[in-house]
UniProtKB/TrEMBL annotation:
Substrate binds at R70, E122. The keyword rRNA-binding does not apply. Its cofactor is Mg(2+). Pfam families: HpcH_HpaI. Residues 9-216 form the HpcH/HpaI aldolase/citrate lyase domain. SUPFAM superfamilies: Phosphoenolpyruvate/pyruvate domain. Gene3D superfamilies: Phosphoenolpyruvate-binding domains. This is (3S)-malyl-CoA thiolesterase. Mg(2+) binds at E122, D148. Keywords: Lyase, Magnesium, Metal-binding. The gene is mcl2.
Length: 284
């Protein structure tokens, strides 16, 4: 499936050091997995986690889920060995934390060759350089790192995420301008479904393709929030039908539910139907 049209509703972090969690992911209805060697893995476990993860990926069983390996930064003592190991793993992409500029991706690509790259967007410098990072030829997607961003910005948690908006907006603009995937940050309170839904809805309305998750309990809420609803699918079908009807009579504007429908709305309607089809295809 084309990486730009496949669903990325739910992207679950799994500590690379935990065989039980690595196994569990084989049966979770997530669209993608981030196999983590960075913050989810303690210093004591860093070296072993690389081997544990390589073995789990070699064993396979992850089906259509996109497999992304998050390495430690290249400025850490583990980064280079992680990158060399990840380049040989049976994974779809490598995720670099705390990307500040496109030069960081150049340095990783020198080690990892043809593997597609993803960038953690979680530093103020990264926000300011989002455009050049998104334009990197090896970059496939961006992941918001809202915990690190909050730390760097010295913001307090707010349900409306107002202090994050400038950074989220800059990264969204950059990703959309380059046609790259972009997924939202994690919601730390993994037992709070209501709060998660509010944040998912906000991220979806802003234009994120999906959300990163830390616990399996967050998957269903997220998959629902980032999938087209029945009402959206129904409206999309009616918009396309109404537009095709007026177009056949030489007109350029239809009206559905009291709102105009022009060719750009039809393009959005077709994208909604394509997304619903893609979700159905990977769920089958
Ligand atoms: C948060 C956790 C430490 C909770 O773990 P635990 O206490 O084991 O939870 P449960 O007992 O409720 O687990 C139930 C079962 O689910 C499995 N499990 C738990 N988490 C995961 C997971 N992430 N993936 C797959 N499976 C998972 C458990 O193994 C149990 O299975 P079973 O025994 O068979 O019933 C834990 O959830 C956790 O470690 N989560 C990941 C944390 C993480 O990845 N953190 C780093 C990413 S966040 C970040 O860094 C973002 C960014 O960089 C930023 O700056 O914002
Ligand atoms: Mg982080």
């Amino acid at each position: 499936m084309d990486p730009r049209t496949r669903p990325y509703r739910s992207v679950l972090y799994i500590p690379g050091s935990k065989p039980r969690a690595l196994d569990k992911a084989r049966n979770l209805p997530v669209d993608a997995v981030i196999f983590d060697l960075e913050d989810a893995v303690s210093v004591e476990e860093k070296e072993n986690a690389r081997d544990t993860l390589a073995a789990a990926l070699a064993e396979g069983g992850y089906g259509a889920r996109v497999r992304i390996v998050r390495i430690n930064g290249l400025d850490t003592q583990w980064g280079r060995a992680d990158a060399e190991a990840a380049a040989k793993m049976d994974c779809d992409a490598i995720l670099l934390p705390k990307v500040s500029s496109s030069a960081d991706l150049d340095a990783l690509a020198e080690i990892t060759g043809d593997k597609p790259l993803w960038a953690m967007m979680e530093t103020p410098r990264g926000m300011l350089n989002a455009a050049e990072i998104a334009a990197h030829p090896k970059l496939q997607g961006m992941v918001m790192g809202t915990n690190d961003l909050a730390k760097e910005l010295q913001t307090r948690f707010r349900a409306d995420r107002l202090p994050m908006m400038a950074g989220l907006g800059l990264c969204l603009l950059a990703a959309k301008a380059e046609g790259k995937i972009i997924v939202d940050g994690v919601y730390n309170a993994f037992k709070d479904d209501e709060g998660l839904k509010v944040e998912c809805d906000q991220g979806r309305d802003m234009g994120f393709d999906g959300k990163t998750l830390i616990h399996p309990a967050q998957v269903d809420v997220t998959n629902t929030a980032f999938a087209p609803s029945e009402a959206e699918i129904d409206l999309a079908r009616r918009q396309i039908a109404a537009f095709e009807e007026v177009e056949a009579s030489g007109q350029g504007v239809a009206v559905v539910d009291g709102k105009i429908v022009e060719n750009l709305h039809v393009a959005t309607a077709r994208e909604i139907l394509a997304k619903a089809d893609a979700i159905a295809a990977i769920s089958a």
